[in-house]
């Protein structure tokens, strides 16, 4: 057990050392820590008004349910492993008993759960308002950590049992989706009874006492809302006890499991290592590269030259599951639904959809093409290979974001001309951001610390917006008044397109040295 604790301790010490391994890493780490810390401090020191109780409870329930379902479904839909390759090699080759390895899993769940819970709780002070004090925030963080500990531990348990009983994980996923489907049907029934008013439906659905009985997600919402309302005895304590009881049960069940999971876990650690390597070298994870490819025919026209890159990406996209292929569209529709449920303005929904689309574009396949030496052997110019490499991801981002924005505009009854202009503005930023990212690879190369690449990518993305802002300021100064929407749209779109062409030109030689990028 001392060796296990030493391994855990060294793991986090080494992660901390890597954060301060170079001047750029030190600057980025300090900026991140100061930004997060100052945001949390500001949330409790700034004057906050008390949020509507039902609104806060509904929003908390929706966020917890959304993140929990996505995380759980992601775990159950692929074999991503439960140990890294380094940990698996150390634990499985050392003189450790099965229970010692299982104890390592149990102990390592705690920090992972706290970090995930912190990501969810980060916005709660702004959502809940003055009712959430600093001590209550720590308790809310604890409750969310318990929720994610339940999710992680249950996945570990199902993963190991699936080795002994193949197909169990698929059955559990079907049951899980059936439960979520039943909850969705109830939501639709309530929606019908409220005259299709999403806001009233969401409040009735998530604030009803029966929702508190939903395992894990309902209990978490019950505990948090009861804590905020001061209902400690009949609300917070029962919910917290239920979550704690599930964790104790899962820990005992996992610790006493007798299945031989060594071989399967070691095999799947390769997939998990692939994820980590992607993150370390590229700063992102290519979701399609780790998705399970289906054995089915795909009608893809295979092109020669640079077009072969486009054909390969299309073939990979056609062979992944429906959820993985259209996940960007689903996320955009979820943001639109959230905007309607919580009576958010169209501009806010537009920003959420745009930010989600641009963030998810960081995981497109073209990031990996820059790390593949065989691309150098394709008989085509570097610029044509560059365009064909980013074209599938660019089209996917444009379509998914455009569909979500168009749907939101129709629901919010935005003027058709303005709605079309919003879509074109979004498209111009997509092109601009993608070529800004490409230029970071062109200037920095692949051997640089991933933190530096990520930092430069953020700087280039923000700097790419500056020209459009400058043009707007110049127009405003010259005309002595704020330009109307058509003038803003035309200036932003034209400026973004001009600088996109400039960035593409500066990045044209990125594949000329791809044979030595690895």
TrEMBL record:
Key words, A-Z: Membrane, Transmembrane, Transmembrane helix
Record has Nuclease as a keyword: no
Record Pfam families: ABC_export
Top-rank taxon: Bacteria
InterPro entries found in the cross-reference section: Put_ABC_export
Stretches that traverse the bilayer: 20-46, 58-76, 101-125, 137-163, 175-196, 232-255, 329-353, 398-414, 420-439, 459-479, 485-506
Record's keyword annotation contains Membrane: yes
Name of this protein: Putative ABC exporter
Species of provenance: Ruminiclostridium sufflavum DSM 19573
């Amino acid at each position: 057990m001392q060796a296990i604790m030493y391994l855990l301790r060294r793991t986090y010490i080494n992660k901390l050392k890597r954060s301060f391994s170079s001047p750029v890493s030190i600057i980025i780490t300090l900026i991140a820590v100061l930004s997060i810390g100052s945001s949390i401090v500001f949330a409790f020191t700034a004057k906050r008004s008390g949020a509507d109780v039902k609104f806060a409870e509904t929003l908390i329930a929706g966020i917890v349910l959304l993140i929990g379902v996505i995380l759980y479904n992601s775990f159950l839909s692929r074999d991503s492993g439960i140990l890294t390759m380094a940990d698996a090699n150390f634990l499985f080759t050392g003189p450790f008993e099965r229970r010692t390895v299982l104890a390592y899993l149990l102990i390592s769940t705690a920090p992972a759960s706290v970090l995930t819970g912190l990501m969810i709780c980060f916005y709660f002070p702004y959502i809940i308002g003055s009712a959430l004090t600093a001590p209550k925030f720590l308790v809310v963080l604890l409750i969310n950590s318990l929720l994610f500990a339940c999710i992680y531990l249950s996945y570990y348990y199902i993963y190991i049992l699936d080795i002994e009983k193949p197909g169990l994980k698929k059955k559990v996923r079907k049951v899980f989706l059936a439960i979520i489907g039943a909850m969705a049907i109830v939501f639709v029934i309530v929606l019908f009874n409220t005259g299709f008013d999403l806001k009233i439906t969401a409040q009735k659905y998530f604030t009803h006492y029966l929702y508190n009985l939903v395992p894990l997600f309902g209990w978490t919402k019950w505990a948090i809302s009861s804590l905020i309302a001061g209902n400690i005895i009949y609300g917070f304590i029962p919910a917290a006890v239920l979550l704690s009881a599930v964790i104790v049960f899962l820990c005992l069940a996992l610790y006493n499991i007798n299945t031989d999971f060594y071989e399967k876990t070691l095999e799947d650690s390769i997939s998990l290592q692939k994820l980590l390597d992607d993150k370390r070298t590229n700063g992102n994870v290519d979701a399609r590269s780790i998705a399970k490819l289906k054995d089915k025919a795909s009608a893809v026209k295979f092109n020669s030259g640079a077009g072969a890159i486009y054909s390969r990406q299309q073939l990979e996209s056609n062979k992944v599951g429906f959820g993985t292929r259209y996940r960007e569209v689903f996320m955009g529709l979820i943001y639109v639904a959230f905007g309607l449920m919580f009576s958010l303005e169209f501009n806010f929904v537009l920003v959420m959809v745009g930010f989600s689309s641009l963030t998810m574009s960081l995981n497109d396949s073209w990031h990996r093409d820059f790390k593949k030496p065989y691309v150098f052997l394709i008989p085509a110019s570097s610029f044509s290979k560059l365009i064909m490499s980013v074209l599938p991801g660019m089209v996917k981002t444009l379509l998914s974001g455009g569909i979500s924005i168009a749907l939101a505009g129709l629901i919010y009854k935005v003027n058709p001309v303005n709605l079309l202009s919003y879509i074109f503005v979004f498209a111009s930023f997509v092109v601009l951001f993608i070529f800004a990212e490409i230029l970071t690879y062109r200037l920095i190369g692949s051997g640089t610390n991933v933190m530096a690449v990520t930092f430069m990518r953020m700087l280039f993305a923000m700097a790419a917006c500056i020209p459009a802002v400058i043009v707007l300021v110049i127009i405003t100064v010259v005309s002595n008044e704020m330009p109307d929407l058509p003038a803003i749209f035309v200036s932003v779109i034209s400026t973004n397109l001009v600088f996109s062409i400039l960035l593409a030109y500066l990045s044209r030689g990125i594949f000329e040295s791809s044979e030595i990028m690895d």
